[in-house]
Specification:
Blueprint (H helix, E strand, L loop, with lengths): L1 H17 L1 H7 L4 H21 L5 H22 L10 H12 L4 H16 L1 H5 L6 H78 L8 H31 L8 E3 L1 H18 L3 E6 L6 E3 L1 H18 L5 E8 L5 E7 L33 H11 L3 E5 L8 E6 L13 H16 L6
């Protein structure tokens, strides 16, 4: 209401000032009186504008309407009364009230009634007759305009109330959904933490058994234990990824960027993944350009990015396929790393969607490869935290895929951020196993 009142007062001041031209041309004899009324009217409107936020807004609105109405009636009286050509001005006022001001039907009825009575009483001031036809017609039309003002104000007030209630319901629903989402996020995080603890305790004796700490195993026993170990690791990786995504959603995942040799880091990861690639009969090679600069990056996050891309490439590349990793200098002093495979490839429509959360490239009932669709989504989030970009290119189905990410030169983040400690711990515990079981740990 205060905003509408301020805009209306400015509009009235501008229009009122423009009518000075009409006063001078049509009523030169009464120009002085008319000019005085218009000046007083503008001063009153400026006062209403200045006090719109200081005093009761409704009272100031009513004062502004009454001042405008009385000023119009004074102009009509000074210009010759109801027989002058100025009397339609009161009708313009009645029509403008519901258009410009958010008033109720009752408020409009009170203001219009008072102004209509003053308008009808103009003949008493100017010495005319209240019963003459020349006076009855203007009053009749002004009364019709007043009724239109009241009806329009009542209708628009009901519409505003309905809109307000609808908006309030939407806001309440939004707040409720936000609260439910927070509850869900807390519950999910707690469940993931509770699941990770027994999984970690399960993996430790499994690894001891596989290492022969409790005696030799028969081939059948080792086979079953390896199956248990692989699936436990897959579940642990899934839980860790979900925890990371939950932290990203809550803005709790922070990076601790240090000056890092990305080329050397990727080379170490490639060397660790060689045994798995050989087991799958996949040729894993790397090209490290000599001019690759050091950049400010979080080492653990970069490891997670590269491991997810390697795991994805190994999973979708069949025997006798090839995976080639390239690390070179990127724009603005950054680093570009590309993981190119000769696997199943991607359709052009899937190149962007592949990084969406829970997206699956193969959604058929006979889908060959397992996965949850969160690994590449986590890659995009971690790259984005560095201010970089990740994208996929492919010549089509059966032509392989190239996953490329770019990290800018960046800046140091100072001390290690405790919010990223969970990622560090999980990487320390699973890095070697993820490399060895990469094709199954998406």
């Amino acid at each position: 209401m205060a905003r509408a009142l301020r805009l209306t007062t400015l509009f009235v001041i501008v229009v009122n000032s423009l009518f000075v031209i009409l006063d001078f041309s049509s009523h030169p004899e009464e120009f002085g009186a008319l000019l005085g009324v218009r000046l007083a009217w503008n001063i009153a409107m400026l006062t209403v504008y200045a006090l719109a936020n200081c005093l009761d807004t409704l009272r100031m609105l009513q004062a502004g309407v009454m001042v405008s109405g009385i000023a119009l009636i004074a102009l009509i009286a000074a210009a010759g009364g109801l027989t002058s050509d100025y009397w339609p001005g009161i009708m313009i006022l009645f029509v403008g009230i519901p258009v410009f001001l958010p008033v109720s039907g009752t408020q409009a009825a009170v203001m219009s009634g008072v102004l209509l009575a003053l308008f009808a009483a103009i003949p008493l001031v100017s010495g005319g007759s209240l019963t003459s036809v020349q006076h009855i017609a203007p009053v009749f039309f002004a009364s019709a305009a007043a009724l239109e003002c009241i009806a329009s104000s009542a209708l628009l007030d009901r519409l505003r109330l309905a809109e307000f209630m609808q908006k309030r319901e939407i806001e309440q629903a939004r707040d409720h959904l936000s609260q439910m989402d927070q509850v869900k996020a807390r519950f999910t995080a707690n469940v993931h933490h509770e699941l990770r603890t027994p999984l970690t305790l399960t993996l430790s004796p499994l690894e001891s058994l596989l290492a022969g700490d409790f005696g030799d195993l028969t081939p059948l026993q080792r086979s079953y234990l390896k199956t248990m170990h692989v699936n436990a690791l897959r579940l642990l990786k899934l839980i860790n990824n979900l925890l990371d995504l939950a932290k990203l959603e809550n803005d709790e995942l922070r990076l601790s960027r240090r000056l890092t040799n990305i080329g050397k880091l990727v080379e170490e990861l490639i060397q660790g993944a060689m045994p798995l690639a050989e087991k799958k009969s996949v040729a894993l090679t790397m090209t490290l350009h000599s001019n690759v600069p050091e950049v400010y990056a979080d080492t653990d996050a970069v490891e997670r990015i590269v491991l997810n891309l390697l795991s994805n490439a190994l999973k979708f590349t069949d025997a006798n396929g090839k995976i080639h990793v390239t690390v070179e200098e990127g724009p603005d002093g950054g680093v570009v790393c590309a993981v190119k495979d000769t696997g199943m490839g991607l359709d052009a429509t899937e190149l962007e969607r592949v990084f969406d959360r829970f997206a699956q490239v193969d959604t058929s009932a006979t889908r060959k490869h397992e996965g949850t669709g969160i690994g590449l989504s986590l890659v995009r989030e971690l790259v984005s935290l560095h201010g970089g970009r990740v994208w996929a290119t492919s010549a089509g189905l059966g032509e392989g895929v190239t996953m490329t990410f770019w990290l800018p030169a960046g800046e140091s983040d100072g001390a290690v951020d405790l919010a990223f400690e969970d990622v560090k711990r999980c990487l320390q515990g699973e890095r070697a196993e993820v490399i060895r079981q990469g094709s199954e740990l998406r």
